Amino acid sequence: MEENMNMTAERSLEIITKQIAQSRKDVSKDVGLSLYIAGLSIIGVAILITSCILLTGNTLFYLLYALIPVIVIGIDRYVKKDKPKAPVSLVGSMVDKTWQTFGIFTLSFCVFAILFDFLMGRLESPEIYVRIAIHPFRIILLMMGMAITITGYILKSRWLVWCGIIGGIGGFIWESFGVTDMFLARLFELASFYRYSHIPPCIIIVAFAFVGLTLPGWMLRKQK
């Protein structure tokens, strides 16, 4: 009797393990397609916005970055409308919660940073404002890298983990130290440098989107 119960327990554990593995595989491919779409969309929008600014000199085009979530969600739903949905599971739920948390923290931080910079720009002198101004871009890169890395751990994807780490930390350090600005400053004269100063953010966004989203998304889609 006890032996039969042990065999039944082992069989149940084996079934559960297989179900989790299959669920992780299905969710991985679904997440991979979403990351792939998000990466290509961000790259396209970044190049479009930078091109418009270089041609017109109007920095209001930066506001178009706010449309990225709408564009990504719209394309993602359109591409997946005829595809079977990933099964509802613990793995899928954990991935969803990870990105929901990222969205809440990122949106809250951006709103706070914009309001803080707006107020301090009018209350403080330019010298003080330069020191206390919040630069949300580098923090967003870091938080997105964390979300990608956590997703990789959940899905047991080394590619996703390393892409998240390299993209997040690398993008944060690159942006914090203004590496691209230093390169441009060596290539162009001062006047030309200001003209091309909108290129560095585009380069960072494109590189991060490729390393942190497009590449791992492609790898997840191709896995067997």
Radius of gyration: 22 Å
Number of helices: 9
The SS-based structural class is mainly alpha
Order of helices and strands: HHHHHHHHH
Shape: elongated
* Low-confidence segments: none
Mean pLDDT: 76
What proportion of the residues is helical, as a percent range?
over 70%
Distance between the termini: 41 Å
Biggest sheet details: none
Q: Quick one: how many beta strands?
A: 0
Strand content: under 5%
Oligomeric state, counting identical vs distinct chains: single chain
Please explain how this structure is put together:
With 224 residues, this protein is an all-alpha fold. 83% of the residues lie in helices and 0% in strands. It has nine helices and no strands. The protein has helices at 2-56, 68-80, 90-123, 126-132, 136-155, 158-176, 179-187, 190-195, 199-222. Helix 1 (2-56) packs antiparallel against helix 9. The longest helix has 55 residues, at 2-56. The chain is elongated. The two termini are 41 Å apart.
